[in-house]
């Protein structure tokens, strides 16, 4: 980090690395997620220019598609973090190297928001990976998303349990058992999270809610202590079937993997499927044509300020 051109901010540039995430893991809708070793990198620098303006260069995922000015999601999050501390919006130059595919259920928007809030607080001289600033990063990103699962995983790494109380978001991190080897199956198709959230019913049967409570609690045990329980733990009645029309091929793949004994679930709001394998391999008899198979080890670190 070097000294800022803007006298109001102590730091002139930061580099942040943030992992993808897979949320829900079955029944743990808006509550469970795991961070995955696929990373976006953001370099943010304060430059001379009109206050609040931004020039963004994007390499990799999202290049040519996302805004390259102050409307860019990461820029908006940087500005929001600085506003939270009472700083006026500086002119920014951003370089984004993105590996997390957009609109696939791997938490790209949460990763972008966590990177932006972390960069903003870091420019103000705070450590976004330590409390109490980390909690502010979570609050900012989760409030933007409307759910804290992905943001908490991108922030803290490992697996997380996230919840909301009195309008505030909170989360705890859990270490994932070393025998859990996530494999993402990523199709070419996209699906916007806000669209598939709209497919969910206002209410679910009490029996399904009770089912979800049991499976989600079991998932915490299975992820951290006993991966042999993951097949039962990742069963879902809370969201996947309601969203099937958005990604029928993904839904069918998850059923095929599960029938072959592989703990699998739709990743976040889809259309990626996530298999929580014990050795990193998928059974040969399950056809995966149309899906890119990406072994993605758990990311234990979460967001990092690397320079
Ligand atoms: N790194 C990024 N930079 C800018 N915008 C991003 C980035 N990542 C995600 N987004 C925005 O978020 C959208 C995807 O969000 P969402 O529908 O929640 O899917 P995902 O499951 O990938 O988070 C993209 O279309 C894009 O507008
Ligand atoms: N709990 C959320 C998770 C969305 O994850 P994303 O990676 O698809 O954005 C949901 O299921 O809506």
UniProtKB/TrEMBL annotation:
Enzyme class: transferase
Annotated metabolic or biological route of this protein: Amino-acid biosynthesis; L-threonine biosynthesis; L-threonine from L-aspartate: step 4/5
Residues that, per the record, bind ATP: 101-111
Entry keyword Iron: no
UniProt keywords, alphabetically: Amino-acid biosynthesis, ATP-binding, Cytoplasm, Kinase, Nucleotide-binding, Threonine biosynthesis, Transferase
InterPro entries: GHMP_kinase_C_sf, GHMP_kinase_N_dom, GHMP_knse_ATP-bd_CS, Homoserine_kinase, Ribosomal_Su5_D2-typ_SF, Ribsml_uS5_D2-typ_fold_subgr
Domain GHMP kinase N-terminal as annotated: residue spans: 73-158
UniProt GO MF annotations: homoserine kinase activity
Transmembrane residue ranges: none
Keyword Protease (UniProt): no
One family name in Pfam for this protein: GHMP_kinases_N
Functional note: Catalyzes the ATP-dependent phosphorylation of L-homoserine to L-homoserine phosphate.
Protein family: Belongs to the GHMP kinase family. Homoserine kinase subfamily.
Protein name in the entry: Homoserine kinase
Source organism (scientific name): Saccharopolyspora cebuensis
